[in-house]
Specification:
By secondary structure, the protein is α+β, with helices and mostly antiparallel strands. It contains 24 helices and eleven strands. Helix 6 runs antiparallel to helix 7 and helix 19 packs parallel to helix 21. The longest helix is centred in the C-terminal third of the chain and has 35 residues. The protein is elongated and about 90 Å long.
């Protein structure tokens, strides 16, 4: 591995014009594809294998032309004080609004509040339901404008009018904080390298990689039904790993220059050593993201594959374009010991400082590692107890999917949600649709009535509509209004109670009862994700464990890495619960409404955080292993690893935290939550687990940390992440003959 990457790095350095041209051409091609691609259509949300999805598919089959996946809107009217919606003037205003809405070209139907029993008992609130032929993302802007104009005209007539539903859904915005995150990354890079040129290289390559990845996603969005969130998450992860991977290679390049090597040789060795770590770190991230496919939720699979593709591009760019740009930069990228005057450091070639007073002062990483190896048990206990305390809120984790109730209070969707709760009860925003399939029943109508009767007798039910059969008379829908809000435990219990009651009816009549609707769909998603979490952990952690055995040639080091990851991800989930569910620091994070944590959050965090955690594990511990295999004692190898790697890993973690934190400003609650969760997870993993717990454990284990059974050592391939082959080759020289020897090696 190291020898191949060494050759690749030198080739990219020499043929930098060709390499740069290839990447610029790919960026241009992706950009043209994104610009000419049709707009993204409906991002279908299906959950194969769930009852809610089965019922949804049955509706499309038995109720053709009903546009089961079409957008919906609820136009909610509230009368002024001391007036009723049944007053003549208010009734005329509503009727005029309904007529205007019905004229839309994409409107399938509009339900009149006065004929559809959609006026509250006190007569102050009413609503009109609008059904569209196409999904919310496919609605024409003119249709959305017509909806908003109709609502505004009713407001002008004196009514309070708000619009709920998915007809007005918009593409999420990330806000200015994303730019702030990149700016923070730039500042950290300048501080780390002390050079604007060296700092600019990781930023430039990361932006090119993200540009190619996101443009490709945009170009394929319509064909593959990719949602807008997919590109945002790909950008988030691609930026973070792209900057970090380039940072490690540039840092190693400067270290090689400091040892007196020529620039081309230094570029080759940087790619051969740090590049090997980049490849394996990238592989763990890709495995974790692609592994999301085991959950069998197409939307989550697409998000994972798209983000994994962006990570793969970041790895390839780091291995090829970074050495090419280093060739262009020339002497403007200084050796590690000659940062220039930007931060007040001495320059190479200037008089050396007087060493008579003693050895040079050790850097912070060396001093910290020396402290940890002297008191490993105390550091280990403090780190584990601290993360355990942060993880305590995770025991209260409640899962759900965002609805209009989680929108900011300033949006019309949220205000419509609140008005409906006020006029019709909290459960009205999450009606349950019961589908009765009586095709196998001898008396379908009796079966419909039996199901409706059973549901009416259940606790927590406010209203049950009469069964509405299809034209064939073999299938009917029943709408059930709970007395609790959609995301509550009581509503979840009611869904299970209806399904249990339906089982009893099926045993008597042969009619199958299915519960669907957005609320039931959310419940099924949460259960499916919970059921998939353990198999996903086994798959991803198992594959990465095997990969790390190959990298570190050890059993205990990969095991320690996996256990440390579990600590950091549980602590991060605890922080997410504290902020988004309990409301701690919610104002600072811009969280206007607390509630259940997004159902996808635990499994998504497991996947992404595991991949990122292994990044720091590989980059930091490979330096320790490199020192160990070159003859240093275990404790000294830990200190040496921190001496060379702690500063860079710290910078990489701060950069990644800044990039993720930049997405906290998103208008999309899911993106906001993921941005916060990943930022805090990187903090816990990089600064507590990798910087404290890992060296403490390695110090306690000593030589046992690097133990590997001899039979397994012989069976494993030698990937040479430490660059031992390069060290030997460097002693022989680096001419063409030696290069051929390296290839054969």
């Amino acid at each position: 591995m190291a020898t191949f990457l060494y050759k690749l790095g030198r080739l990219a350095f020499r043929r930098r014009h060709f390499v740069a041209l290839i990447w610029v051409a790919l960026l241009t091609l992706a950009g043209v594809g994104a610009a000419s691609a049709p707009p993204a259509g409906n991002s279908s949300f299906s959950i194969p294998g769930t009852e809610a999805q089965k019922a949804f598919d049955l509706l499309e089959q038995r109720f053709p032309g009903a546009s089961a996946d079409g957008a919906t809107a609820r136009v909610v009217f509230k009368a002024p004080s001391d007036e009723k919606m049944t007053d003549a003037d208010n009734k005329a205003t509503v009727q005029k609004t309904v007529d205007e809405l019905a004229d839309g070209s994409e409107v399938a139907s509009v339900a009149d509040p006065y004929t559809g029993n959609a006026v509250s008992k006190d007569g102050t609130i009413a609503y009109a339901s609008v059904k569209y032929d196409v999904s919310g993302m496919e609605l024409e802007e003119s249709t959305k404008d017509a909806l908003e104009d109709a609502a505004q005209q009713a407001r002008d007539a004196g009514l309070t009018v708000e619009v709920g539903g998915d007809a007005l859904q918009a593409v999420p915005e990330t806000g200015a904080t994303e730019v702030i995150g990149i700016a923070v990354a730039a500042v950290v890079l300048v501080i780390t390298f002390g050079s604007l040129v060296a700092a600019g290289l990781p930023l430039l390559t990361a932006l090119i990689g993200v540009g190619i990845g996101v443009s490709s996603i945009t170009a394929l969005a319509s064909a593959l039904e990719l949602g807008s969130t997919t590109s945002i998450l790909a950008m988030m992860i691609g930026l973070a790993v792209g900057i970090d991977y380039a940072l490690f290679i540039v840092s190693r390049y400067r270290a090689e220059l400091a040892e007196g090597r020529e620039r081309e040789e230094a570029a080759g060795r940087a790619v051969g050593t740090a590049g090997s770590a980049v490849v394996f770190a990238g592989l763990t991230v890709v495995i974790a993201l692609v592994g999301l496919a085991v959950v069998n939720i197409p939307m989550l699979t697409k998000m994972g594959v798209a983000a994994a593709g962006t990570v793969a591009i970041a790895v390839l760019i780091a291995l090829t374009m970074i050495p090419a740009l280093l060739g262009y930069a020339g002497r403007r990228v200084k050796p590690a010991g000659a940062k220039g005057r930007l931060l007040g450091r001495s320059r190479k070639g200037e008089p050396k400082p007087d060493r008579s007073a003693g050895p040079p002062k050790a850097n912070l990483g060396t001093r910290w590692a020396s402290f940890v190896v002297r008191r490993p048990l105390a550091v280990l206990l403090l780190g584990v107890i601290g993360l355990g305390a942060a993880a305590v809120p995770a025991a209260s984790l409640e899962l759900g999917l965002p609805d209009d109730g989680s929108q900011p209070a300033s949006t019309t969707q949220r205000r419509a949600y609140d008005l409906l709760s006020e006029g019709f009860g909290p459960g009205f925003n999450g009606p349950l649709m019961v589908v009765v399939d009586a095709k196998g029943s001898d008396a379908p109508k009796d079966a419909f009535d039996d199901v409706a009767g059973e549901i009416k007798d259940l606790d927590g039910v406010v209203a049950v509509t009469p069964p509405a059969p299809n034209k064939g008379g073999d299938t009917a829908t029943i709408t059930v209004i709970p007395d609790s809000k959609p995301s509550s435990v009581q509503t979840e219990d009611l869904v299970h109670a209806i399904r249990d009651a339906g089982g009893d009816v099926e045993a008597k009549t042969g009619a199958e009862t299915l519960v669907t609707g957005s609320t039931a769909m959310n419940i099924d998603v949460s259960e499916k994700l919970n059921d998939a979490l353990v198999p996903y952990l086994v798959l991803v952690v198992g594959l990465a464990f095997l990969l790390l055995i190959v990298v570190f040639r050890s059993i205990l080091v990969p095991l320690k890495a996996a256990l440390g990851f579990l600590l950091s991800v549980m602590a991060a989930l605890g922080a997410v619960v504290a902020v988004f569910q309990w409301g701690w620091l919610s104002g600072l994070m811009g969280v206007e409404e607390t509630g259940p944590v997004m159902s996808m959050m635990p499994i998504f965090m497991v996947g992404v955080v595991f991949g990122l955690a292994m990044d720091y594990e590989v980059f930091l511990v490979t330096r320790m292993r490199e020192a160990f295999v070159h003859g240093e004692k275990p404790h000294q190898a830990v200190v040496t690893g921190f001496k060379h790697g702690a500063r860079v890993v710290t910078a990489a973690a701060v950069i990644m935290m800044a990039v993720f934190a930049g997405f906290i400003g998103s208008s999309e609650s899911m993106v906001k939550m993921i941005g916060f969760g990943l930022a805090i997870a990187v903090f816990f993993d990089a600064f507590v687990v990798r910087m404290a717990i890992v060296p403490a454990v390695l110090a306690l284990l000593g030589k046992k940390a690097w133990w590997l059974p001899k039979w397994l050592d012989r069976a494993l391939p030698n990937v040479d992440v430490e660059g031992e082959g390069l060290r030997t080759a460097g002693e022989r020289g680096s001419g063409p003959d030696e290069d051929r020897e390296l290839v054969r090696a």
